[in-house]
Known about the structure:
11 helices, methionine biosynthesis
Amino acid sequence: xxxxxxxxxxxxxxxxxxxxxxxxxxxxxxxxxxxxxxxxxxxxxxxxxxxxxxxxxxxxxxxxxxxxxxxxxxxxxxxxxxxxxxxxxxxxxxxxxxxxxxxxxxxxxxxxxxxxxxxxxxxxxxxxxxxxxxxxxxxxxxxxxxxxxxxxxxxxxxxxxxxxxxxxxxxxxxxxxxxxxxxxxxxxxxxxxxxxxxxxxxxxxxxxxxxxxxxxxxxxxxxxxxxxxxxxxxxxxxxxxxxxxxxxxxxxxxxxxxxxxxxxxxxxxxxxxxxxxxxxxxxxxxxxxxxxxxxxxxxxxxxxxxxxxxxxxxx
Length: 315
C-alpha cells in the first residue's frame, strides 16, 4: 500500500525511483479507507533528506500512511527556505487540535547543548506533553530520544570523551517483543553522537524497559504499554549519510575518526557496506503494524484523554 504525502514533495521522485509506492493527496482522497495518520516533527536542518529517509520506511508496509510535517516556530531553520516550509510543513499551532495514530520526533544536531539552552526547548516540551493525549504511539529518534527521556522521566544525557560514530553491533534484551519481530540475535545500526543515555539511569525508572543494547550502549527503550519508544541510533540513515558527515568534518580540519564497521578494511576510498537496511525496514514496519495500526481505533477522536488511550491499548 502507498504512503500519502503532500503534492510535489521533493522526496517523491527519489521514492518512486526506488519503487516505493507513493500517492498524492488528490488520489488518496478517492480511496474508501482510513489511512494511518503520522505526524513528524522534523528537527534536522536539511529537511528533505530526513523526509526521504523516513518516508522510505513508512511506505514499505501494506498499510496506507498519511504523513504531516511540522517545524518549530520558536526557531526557524536556516538550511531550509521559508517557501519550502510554507508549502510542505505546518506549525504545532496548526495541528494541536488534531489526533494522530503515530508521532515521530527526529534527531537534531544540538546534542552538545544542555536541553534548557536549546532555542526551541520550551516548544518541544509542550509538543511532547501534547503527544501523550494526541498521538497513540511516539517514536523518538537520537536527540529526540534523549529529549523525551529527559522530559518524561528526568533521565540525563552524558558527555562522552570519544564520539560514537559508525555502524555498531546490537543484541536483543527481551524475547517475544513485537517491535523486534524478525530481528536477528545480533544486528547492526548506525550511530553518530557525542553523548549517551546510560543503562544505570534507565534502570532507576521502573516504567521503562531496555529492549536492545550493544557496542554503542543502550539502543531501544520503551515504556510499559509501548506508547513511547526511544531509539538512540539511526536505522533510517542512507548508505552515504555517515560518509557525508565524515567528509564534512575532514574538510573542516576536525580530524574525525573513520566510522566503525562502515568502510571495507576502514578504507574511506572504498564504497561503504550497508549492514542495517533490513533492520530499518523491520523496525518501522513492526512499529506501524503492532503499535499503531493494531492499537488505534477507527475514530481517533473517540479517545478523549490519556487514560482512554492507555486503556485502549491491547499490547
